[in-house]
Fold these 2 entries.
Entry 1:
Amino acid sequence: MAADPAPPTAPTSFAECYAELRPEMIRLAAAMTGSSETAQDLVQDAFVRLHGAWDRVHEPRAYLRRAVVNACHSHHRRRRVERRHAALGGTEMNASLGADELADALDGLPHRQRAALVLRFYTDLSDVDIASALGCRPGTVASLIHRGLEQLRRVIDR
Amino acid sequence: MSNLEQNLRDMLARRADATPTAPGDWQDLTVRMARRHRRAQRMMAGALALVLVVGPLAGFAIARAVEDTEPSGRVTAAGPSGSVSANQIATSPEAVKSLSIAYGGVGGLKLEKLFRRTSSDGIAVRAFITRSGANSCQGDGWCPPADCFPDASITGELSTEAAVGFATGYHYAGTTSDLKLTGGGALGANGEGSPARWTVAQTSDRVAKVRVSFAGGGHDEMAPVNGVVLLAALTDPANSGGTVEALDTSGAVLDHADASSVSTGDQVAVLRASDGNAVVSGGTSEFGSSSASTTTVVAGTATTTTPPPNPGAGPSTAAPGGAVPPVTGVGVPRPECIAPPPSLPAPGVQPANPAAAKAEVEQAFATAYAGGPGNDDAKRAVVQDSNSLRATLDEARKGSFAQQVANASAVVTDVVFTSPTEAAVRYDINVKNSTNFTGRIGKALFVDGHWKVARVTICADISLAGVSCPAK
């Protein structure tokens, strides 16, 4: 299961970076969103952003990771709005937990808690790297993970 | 590790591993990049437009509000809703024109404040003068009267409760008349629903007050400040008439003028062309409101074809090449403001038979410029270095001005021999059913035993047809 090990050296060209980091980022996005198609789409956009900032990006992997996390956040926000509108329109989606209760519970978490859990339990990142990806202080990461796990427990035990 | 954490790891791994990570779609990525680039460009263009349009307006509005020394509330916001709409600027030629003057049309020269006043109708008026200096004598020694050309421009900022606009006029050094209208126009008539007219005038020292009565019913008056007045009143601009009067201290009318003489007139700009000819550009607003621009050259090149009066056009504020507008507000410029034709040089050593030489020169010009079908060999025989100009002459005959070239003819009016082999020639080029070019100065050379039209002369004239001679 574990995330790909970090390459010994950073990719030197954008094409090289795309070939090397794309699978890793797709898996991260898929873990965050639970959707293959969405992950592919979000990662493509993340690379477009990286391309625009290529001259000033020193760590493409960290940049991409943060771009993917932010893109997943935007995706979840859009999906929430769509669900709300669907509910108002009388086509209420099934809000109950599905077959994979844990996945549904994870998707129901606030963005930062969900991202912290994915980055910790899928990519095995340190608090510092998670903080960098989330744009918060390292001390906040432990709190996010703790509260995220508590929330998952409450939902599953319900 | 708790069960929950392990379950979470397993679930995330399943999610990730279920996602194919086949080689990336590079083409899709390229398309997305191009889309993002276009979006960025659009945003940049939008931001730029915002800065260019809203920035100056906001600055103008803020400056006016801050600078206002009268009790607050007299001058309120510039638009009905408390802000200046871009539409006001975009739909008002006068506003746009004036913006170009205020923010760059005068080359960044300083706006020196003349006065601030509020008309009886509540129109806030700020008047500025931008001095450009008198330009009397020209490079070739021609010194027109000082009042032929303005030495300063007048810029007015006007605002009512509903609209904001600019006024423009001119200041002439050496003006002796008691009243000279130098600008006129309207504002607030483009949907604001609060139309007003304004008039800029220059006065003599004898004038104590200037008053205007617009045909649409508005009135205004003020004492001149440094010989300048800017009068404004709420009135319908559709009624273009009215009367402007200059009064002395006793109230006697010293002079009067038709208030529409500038704003609806056919202003003519005169400038001195580089070749010494006077170029007259007239009859249009620079926004091309209703008439085509007519540029003619007098006293040296083309004869004037004075454009007909154009009631729809505003005053011209900028002539081609940055020339200043003329002294006359209506019609053609005064004769003394038109550059005289360039003079021929003094005679030098004469050829052996001056009369025969003169006749040959006249014949050479007549032959060279004769339009229509003719003997090309004969034409080439009277033009210096004609072999190198063969293609050029053909191009002129077939180019955009082929009709004019075909209908052209030349008449020599004066010949001065400056040496036995060189002559200065004054001649007219007449073009049937088109503009004539009179009083041109050219050169004839005695080459290979014959007098011929100099290459430099034929090339200068051929350039009128939009064709250039090859380098020698």
Note: Chain B touches chain A through 26 residues (CB under 8 Å).
Entry 2:
Amino acid sequence: MRTRASRQTRNLLQYPYILWSTLFIVIPLALIIWYSFTQPVQTGGFQFSTSNYRRFFEPVYLRVMGRSLILAIEATLICLIVGYPAAMIIVRLGLRWRNTLLLLLVLPMWINFLLRTYSWMVLLGRQGVLNQFLEWIGLPPQSILYSRAAVLIGMVYNFLPFMILPLYTSLSRIGKEQIEAAEDLGANRFDVFRRIILPLSLPGILTGTTMVFMPAVSTFVISALLGGGQDMLIGNLIEQQFLSTGDWHFGSAVSILMMVIILISMAIVSVTDKGRSLEEGNLW
Amino acid sequence: MKKVLKLVLMGLFIFTLLVGCSKKSVVLNVYNWGDYIDETVLKDFEKETGIKINYETFATNEDMYIKVKQGGTKYDVIVPSDYMIARMIREGLLEKIDIRKLKNYEALDKRFLGLQFDPKSEYSVPYMWGTFGILYNKKKVTDPVDSWAILWNPKYKKQILMMDSVRDCLAVAFLRLGFSINSTNKDELQKAKELLIQQKPLVLAYVGDNGKDMMAAGEASLAMCWSGDAVTVRKQNPDLAYVIPKEGTNLWVDSLVIPKTSEHKEEAFRFIDFLNRPEIAKRNVEFIGYATPNRKAFELLPPEVQKDPVAYPSNEILQRCQVYIDLGPFLEEYNKAWTEIKGQ
């Protein structure tokens, strides 16, 4: 009797979530799909059409897509290269230092994302803090703001914690015994890293990569603020279709295509995962 | 016992909800351009009438249009420009206003009434007018600035700011090519598009309201700039100068309108009436630096402002200016061209 009652409560408890996801995920998604496959007709009303999707394969838009993918991959790689050693350093520290460093890593996230991105405009501007410093030490000023480099800096800065935290969790789970065993069997430090630490931290790498790649490929704020509207990314294209040109049909088609790309990239990641559970390295 | 408690709590809850409703005073949703009013004027209106104002801003006519059209918020007073008003009238989004009922109706300059976008002045009350031109830094720009062509001069690579707005950017290209800024000719549009794509590597950024701050801070040397912004920004940085190029420019009139979806049309009219008072109009125009279509407010301004050619260009210059008109379905071609320019 008791188990049945608890099952009933469990069923009841599911309803808020089901309601929530229908209202805010399923219905909007259905709307986007509907928009993406229709075109308004002169007489009013809508007709089925695949023209929105076909339009995306014009060279202009493919270039936008290519640029977004390249920038997102670059940002992800930089995050990995910077984040991995950082996570390893944090793992090896004593408990107090470790917690302090993790806190410092998360601390900037307490400040609004937009504000943090704006502050980079102050740092990178022609008359900005960085250039004043360069001038002070006698170097020629650089114009970094409103370039691809600025967008990349913004992405790496904003998304780096999403790389370090999963890496940290999976690295901290590697038992000392395994490393010691490898050393006892004659492995040098490089071998230990290559054959023990790296494979065991793979789940963290994969989670971190997806967690950085997804927001990086879809961002529009960073490229709008730090890129000056010069290098349009896929997020900006969608934003423009929805907010300024008002072509919701084309905008929806682009959104769907972007979702497909993200799904494909996640699928690739989970295939290379060789059946390992992603959750193992997942912080959330 | 528990049931009683529940009932009491429920009763209290409903009671507070109802009380909240009945006490709620009228809130007027005003949707205006960024930096386009002296905000103390809003406080004074609230004090005088007891009507609360919820003030929101937009950066381009197109942004505003989409938001009003999709109807998320029910705005009561908005401030679109000429061509956008024509479009909104055509699409039946605006409410008729009896502008003769304005207490200071006769103060409005007849030059700004009954223009092409609202021929009978049934929907709109002119709020500000102005032009756009080139704002430049005298210390950085050594060539004479008298033509839009300077925005294509490779010498100023990465020092040029353009407006992030489809009609304004295309207008500059059309003017340089000698076409109408309302061109609905596909070849002309194609040429304008190519010209802007060719310019893109020289452009530092496509900006909204932050353009003038960047010019004041010396981040860029040349910018497309609205006349009123030029007036205010020159006070912050005396190195800046403003010119209307010889090819002419766009003359625009921004007007107060009431959307059909407004739920407080009477209060909205009161607000428009308030803004049209000469002393209030004067405060606004002094604060934002554009030109007022309110003659009595104009007369209240100090003579040096009245004679400032940036805000009030001579008739000779005004004759070279063109007003935007609603493009109808051809706008889609503009939007496509703009997406291609930005996507390059």
Note: The two ends of chain A are 34 Å apart (CA to CA).
